[in-house]
Amino acid sequence: MKPLLITDCDEVLLHMVRHFGVWLDEAHDIDFAPDGGDFANSMRRRGDGALVEPATMWGLLDGFFPAEMARQTLVPHAREALQALSQVAEIVVLTNLGDHCREHRIAQLATHGIAHRVECNQGGKGAPVARIAAEFGNPVTVFVDDLPQHHESVARHAPEVHRLHMVAEPSLAPRVPAAPHAHARIDDWRDARAWIEARFAEGLTAAPANG
């Protein structure tokens, strides 16, 4: 049975926030200054400096996906790492987008030379990670994501899965603390590939990470 890699996309395989910010500037006269992974206080209208309210914020994200996805660029070394890992493992991209964006995400990744199964999700990723791992026979599995809440969710629903916290956006990474429910924090795919390969080579399920 092959091991399994379940990886997020935005800020793991593709840069998103830098391009989202440029679009907000160009199309909406909104200044975007994300503080870590929290968007709640990151958007201000240029006219009066007022914070963008949450409902509008989510609407803007819906405006970016899928219409502006072509702006996104590849995270360095991500494609090469997945190519190497695919020689020994199954790979699934688990992305928190609406189901209507799935075909767009598949096509988008293909333009960057990444062609793997894509699953869309809304909310915590623990349950879908457990479901996908079970589908593949519960092999040794590694989960990669930039958001701490997803590592907590996976720790709760699929504690046997190895959890790697990655924030591949250099402007964000220094302000995002290591996820307490992840087993490791690595922001460069060259080092991440080695860490993942080591987990696969060991052939062992994960030990608990801080509960």
Notes on the structure:
The structure is a single chain. This protein is an alpha/beta fold and 211 residues long. It has helices at 17-28, 54-64, 78-85, 102-111, 126-135, 148-157, 189-202; strands at residues 4-7, 14-15, 30-32, 43-45, 73-74, 90-95, 117-120, 141-145, 162-165, 184-185. The longest helix has 14 residues, at 189-202.
What is the strand and helix layout of this fold?
Layout: E1 4-7, E2 14-15, H1 17-28, E3 30-32, E4 43-45, H2 54-64, E5 73-74, H3 78-85, E6 90-95, H4 102-111, E7 117-120, H5 126-135, E8 141-145, H6 148-157, E9 162-165, E10 184-185, H7 189-202
Parallel strand pairs: 1-6, 1-8, 6-7, 8-9, 9-10
Antiparallel strand pairs: 2-5, 3-4
Helix pairs in contact: 3-7, 5-6
- Strand arrangement within the widest β-sheet reads 7-6-1-8-9-10
Estimated structural class: alpha/beta
**Strand element count:** 10
Name the shape in a single word.
Answer: globular
Low-confidence stretches: none
C-alpha termini separation: 28 Å
Order of SSEs, N→C? EEHEEHEHEHEHEHEEH
Mean pLDDT: 94
Q: Give the % helix.
A: 25-40%
